[in-house]
Amino acid sequence: MAKPDEIEMERPDTFLSRERAVQRAGVVVLTLFVLAGAAGMFGNGPLSHATTSAGGIELRYERFGRTTAPTTIEVTVTTGAADGAPVRFRIERRFIERLDQLELRPEDVFKGFDDTHALFEVAAAGGRGHVELHFKPQDPGFRQTSVVTDGAGIAHLRQLIYF
Amino acid sequence: MNPVFRAVVMFAVLWIVFRVGGRRTLADITTFDFILLLVIGDAAQNAFVGDDFSLTTAALVIVTLLLLDLAVGRLSMRSARLRRIIDSAPVIVIDNGKVLDRVLSWEGMDLDEVLTAARERHGLERVDQIKYAIVERHGGISVVPKDGCG
């Protein structure tokens, strides 16, 4: 109980001391969160984009994406084919079927599904075929797939979609 | 994601951010603070509803936030410990005329803010006229003048 000339209020000194420590730690965590975001750990930044190359296939994509935010996977297949010649590649069907609001550029490159893969065919230009897959993921989670060509080239893609 | 879940998560995120930011974050709002609050609200809006702009989802989010606020208020009434965790506790920064510089610093304040409150509320002119100055839970400053002052 407070003395007659003392103010009557709680003085939880231990709690306040701990609160300040938690706030200091919280500021550090929030600062790291912002720095990670600026670096691209949550999409759109220096660390966000990844490029993988194997067997004449080059994939460029965002390593980290966010639900409802647009993202792009670029597939470039180098075959040395003459301009206008068909360049074909396949992507795992289950990966393509999970892509929400998918738009392809060029538009008419999708040629259907077989049992396990989605089939793409694009006209070569400069010895290469280039396709862009634009989509907006609706669900978070880890996604991975392989892109394969008729020439047995195979490249892998791994992507983490945040909320 | 379900809009109720979004509302709960964003409520928690906003509570954590403003709790970490300290009680003075929302106390005396300047013009810039007001603009910042508007911008924060706008930034949070898309997180609440995503790309669903239906009346139903908006109503669902609003009601969820209101019920969460009521629940937090009720919880804080149940125990002093919970109330401190949710809303912090008042802090004395001037105790019987003595300025607690370290506490002022912890609260991110300087003596000038306390003197401003003392002038505005009680017409006090000097520190030695102040018996207690307290930073309240809401971030405002209460000043208790010494007997015979103010």
The radius of gyration over CA of chain A amounts to 25 Å
Main beta sheet of chain A = 6 strands, mixed
Order of helix and strand elements from N to C terminus of chain A: HEEEEEHEEEEEE
Structural class of chain B: alpha+beta
Shape of chain B: elongated
- The unreliable regions of chain B are none
Distance between the termini of chain A: 50 Å
Q: Order of strands across the widest beta sheet of chain A?
A: 3-11-10-5-8-7
Q: What sequence of helices (H) and strands (E) makes up the elements of chain B?
A: HHHHEEHHEE
Radius of gyration of chain B: 19 Å
Report the oligomer: heterodimer
Q: How much is the average pLDDT of chain B?
A: 86
Give the amount of beta strand of chain A, in percent. Answer: 35-45%
What's the total number of strands of chain B? 4
- How would a crystallographer describe the biggest sheet of chain B? 4 strands, antiparallel
Number of helices of chain A: 2
Based on secondary structure, the structural category of chain A is alpha+beta
SS elements, strand count of chain A: 11
User: Helical content of chain A, roughly?
Assistant: 10-25%
Low-confidence stretches of chain A: none
